[in-house]
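User: I'm putting together notes for a lab meeting next week and I want to include a structural view of one of the chains we've been expressing. I don't have a solved structure, so I'd like a prediction I can at least talk through. The sequence is below, exactly as it appears in our construct file.
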Amino acid sequence: MRLRSTALAAVATLAVSAVPAAIPTAGAAPVSATAATAGTTGAPGDIVGSAPSAFHPLPGQPTDTKAWKIHYRSTTADGAPNIVSGTVIVPQDGRTGPRPLITYAVGTVGLGDSCAPSENLPRGTAMEANLIQQLTLRGWAVVVTDYEGLGTPGVHTYTVGPSAGHAVLDAARAAQRLPGTGLSATGPVGIMGYSQGGQASSWAAELQGSYAPELQVKGTATGGVPGDLLEVADFNNGSYGSGLIFMAAAGQDAAFPELKLDSYLNPAGRLLIAGMKENCVAIDSIAGSFKRISDLTTRDPLAQPDWRARLNQSRLGRTAPAAPVYQYHALADELIPYGVGRRLRADWCARGANLEFDTVWVGEHVSSVITHSLAAGNWLADRFAGRPTHADC
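Assistant: Thanks for the context. Below is the predicted structure for the 393-residue chain, given as structure tokens.
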């Protein structure tokens, strides 16, 4: 099914604060307290715990879907087993036969557990819920990962690409294994994400051929991708996007404690990072804006070999995705430089990827996920329908 209607309904995404409202989670039951701390015996994608949930793009808005909150097994950036939470959403439209599944990676929501998509999708306060609804209206099931450490014990490993890629792929496995969804292990899968979700979906695309080859991935739609974290950090240092640098530093330190972020921070830096770990992006981005790394540190961690090595571990473009890719990036992106997106395109093309690249000529970082949501969805619909790609490497 191809949708060509206006994307105006998705603009409501921008009106929803990342700070969760004090609204009861209607229709949701708590997942067993042991789910997030269960032993790590099992395979990636195995369900550890599940409970009924709900999907509301806006508070109380009906969607004719059934939803579950899940905890599932996944893998850290360094290959250790972990447990991640997420949400499975299935339209209740009477469809028979294989139903496409989208494993959806959200953009930056923050570091606090209250920011997790699984906490906000039932409340109608999740920032990308209107975009997710565009997918369920096509009759597609959607699984939304919370990523490592967001909604589960520990600090969210924000911007750690391999961890996020594993979480996205294992969410698809978990959705297919969850009883009651009607999803098939051999059903078609699409990967989708923008911004932080663009990094996560791109990592999932690169890893899928080796990490989850059994998934029938038909394509990945990815946008605003921070493919090179060092370049993105340099670009945002001292600008209104600088809060993302400090959030990313906390995320990398959570994944790799040997980096010892705290040893680099001055008192102002410690205070900022501590606050970021408890709050969501609306607060974190404002609190961290227009600050330079030198304002919050006694020495620059990004100048150190161990930090640079870990950040480069999340660099994309070294492996061609096994399935086709639709990549889009705003020419005027004020947070992730357009050149970073073009370089990822060049790297993937050089490695033989089946890639279609789309420049967003009008708009900036946030607006582009809205204005291109229908194009990304239509591109995935073509892949599910078996139509030929239009690669432009």
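A couple of points you could mention at the meeting. Residues 229 and 311 are 6 Å apart (CA to CA). DSSP finds 14 helices and nine strands in the chain.

User: Perfect, that's what I needed.
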